[in-house]
Amino acid sequence: MNFEPWQWVLLYGAALISGFSKTGIPGISILSVSIFTVLLPARQATGVVLPLLIFADLFAYVIYRKNLEWSRVGRLLPWALGGLLLGWLALGRVTDHGAARLIGGIIALMLGLHVWRRWKNPADLAAHAPVWFGPVMGVFAGLTTMVANAAGPVMTLYLLAMRLPKLEFLGTGAAFFLLINWIKVPFIAQLGLINPASLMLNLWLLPAVALGALLGRPIVERVNQRFFENAALVMAALATVKLLLV
Fold this sequence. Notes:
There is one protein chain. The protein is mainly α. The protein has one domain. α2 runs parallel beside α11, α5 runs parallel beside α8 and α7 packs antiparallel against α8. It is globular, with a radius of gyration of 17 Å. The two termini are 21 Å apart.
């Protein structure tokens, strides 16, 4: 894979954000996905991003392993597996052009969910969450993570509704994605989206993922989270417009 210097800068920045989003501010993961999808063919980007996320998941799990609720993961996982199958079928039937439109639409929807949950009171979410809320979020999380590696806002909405404390929020999310991303590997590999070329690019980008993951917890305790999320939302929205207009 040949990239211009400015593209390498963006790739390393996206990889760093991938790590940081797992241990720091989950909402900015949308920006990382958007950058990769703009710089690479849409379907190919899915295969490149997945190993980076798994690497970041390992850091997040180690850091927050004492702060997770396996029962929450267990309730969501069966429904998420159904969503994974739907996403696998979709990826196997679309072109790069169609995938770009699909991923752009998914990211746009995720941005909408992210904005909505920010002004929605978490207590109201928990109080009014109907019986179908968990299963629907599970299927949607599986579908969006398979097609676009963009299930962060769905998981955020679900965990907010469960009213988990901050550390349990991060730990439970880390455990869920560690499991679901490993499950995705054979499906993505079967589609040919994980290959020697994509893995070589992963090797170049892993140091940036590790740096982002290590910076996550200390930085998130010191910076204004709203500023980071606002900047990520704006840039991800611009990338989404580009994907939808290809």
